[in-house]
Specification:
Blueprint lengths: L3 H28 L14 H18 L3 H28 L14 E7 L8 H10 L3 E5 L3 H11 L5 E4 L8 E5 L3 E4 L16 E6 L7 E7 L6 H15 L6 E6 L7 H9 L3 E2 L10 E4 L2 E4 L7 E6 L2 E8 L10 E7 L2
Parallel strand pairs: 1-2, 7-8
Antiparallel strand pairs: 1-14, 2-4, 3-4, 5-6, 6-7, 8-12, 9-12, 10-11, 13-14
């Protein structure tokens, strides 16, 4: 009869090999997401695949004692790591590239884009966060009536120009600005509580006295499943942006990671440049043991993109302020 130690060793080896097979299968399927959109879903968890496969390679000698099984586990994990690296590593490297230095005479604008979390339990801290950063422009997603009722009167003391939308689950977006703006595509932003659109867009044009005019858009997409729904939302946004004169800056919660073919295709088709590379913003909260508890953000699903003569000089995350997302603070300039 086999000893307990031998049984535990066999179970550990089998579990390790199974984990290698599962993660490698997901990594390989993600590579072929450009052919079959359903497989693109695996690309949204590329950090888990990439670092998980590295961990499996490192720990194989500890959990797999038999040489033949260990060789199989290492070969499988290495194959998966190569597949995951093809998707993950270019984005990681892009995140290390330096930003463009602003010209001496350039007007520098500060923008904060922030999914504030519709069930935020400390909405007043959002205003304190905004006041500390003091952005010229504030774009909000998941700006639910509950959050808006608390902070709108406080924000209007700081920002005289604003617009917000209502509707379905992802339609609550808002924009506050120290600079006057002209709304564009007003049909995409309803303030009616009976509106049933799942998403909304705020698109505006800033006409400044101290520099070139520019446009801004903010939105909040649904989760990537079902796939057809997000594809339609990307297509609608792409078509709407086609009518907006550059330069334009697009910000928001796209519920899509940069390793996704869906997001990359949208960026290409819309003629945009994405500046958020490997910048995790979600989730900073996780619900367990009966409450929302802090966690480390893993997924970069909030993005900043531009088209035309807009230069991004810095792009960092801020404090969560009761949200399950981190805000992104951007400093940019506009040239002729």
């Amino acid at each position: 009869m086999r000893s307990l130690g031998a049984i535990v060793s066999a179970v550990a080896a089998a579990g390790h090999l199974l984990a290698c097979i599962v993660l490698t299968g997901m990594a390989i399927m993600g590579v072929f997401g450009f052919l079959f959109p359903a497989l693109d879903l695996f690309n949204h968890v590329q950090p888990v695949l990439f670092f998980g496969l590295i961990a499996l390679l490192v720990t194989a000698p500890l959990f797999v004692r038999r040489q033949m099984v260990r060789s199989l586990a290492l070969a499988v994990a290495a194959t998966g790591l190569v597949a995951s690296s093809a998707i993950y590593v270019p984005e990681f490297v892009a995140g290390l590239m330096p930003r463009e230095t602003p010209p001496d005479a350039a007007r520098i604008y500060t923008l904060m884009t922030f999914n504030v979390f519709g069930r935020n339990e400390e909405p007043e801290s959002i205003v304190a966060n905004v006041a500390a950063e003091n952005p010229d422009i504030l774009a909000l997603q998941e700006y639910s009536p509950y959050v808006r009722n608390v902070i709108h009167p406080l924000l209007t003391e700081l920002y005289p120009h604003f617009q917000y939308c209502a509707g379905g689950q992802r339609a609550f977006v808002g924009l506050y600005s120290k600079l006057p703006f002209e709304p564009l595509d007003v049909d995409a932003c309803s303030s009616s509580i009976i509106n049933t659109d799942r998403t909304a867009r705020i698109m505006v044009r800033f006409e400044t006295e101290t520099g070139p005019d520019f446009s801004l858009a903010t939105t909040h997409n649904d989760w990537p499943a079902p796939i057809t729904r997000q594809v339609e939302q990307f297509a609608t946004l792409r078509d709407s942006l086609a009518s907006v004169a550059p330069p334009v800056i697009l910000v928001g919660d796209f519920n899509s990671t940069p390793w996704s073919y869906a997001l990359r295709n949208f960026v290409t088709e819309a003629g945009l440049v994405r500046h958020t590379h490997n910048l995790p913003t979600f989730p900073t909260l996780w619900y367990y043991l009966g409450g929302w508890r802090s966690t480390m953000p893993l997924l970069p699903i909030d993005h900043v993109m531009t088209r035309g003569a807009i230069a991004i000089h810095s792009l960092v995350t801020g404090e969560p302020s009761g949200s399950d997302h981190l805000p992104i603070i951007v400093r940019f300039s506009v040239s002729e």
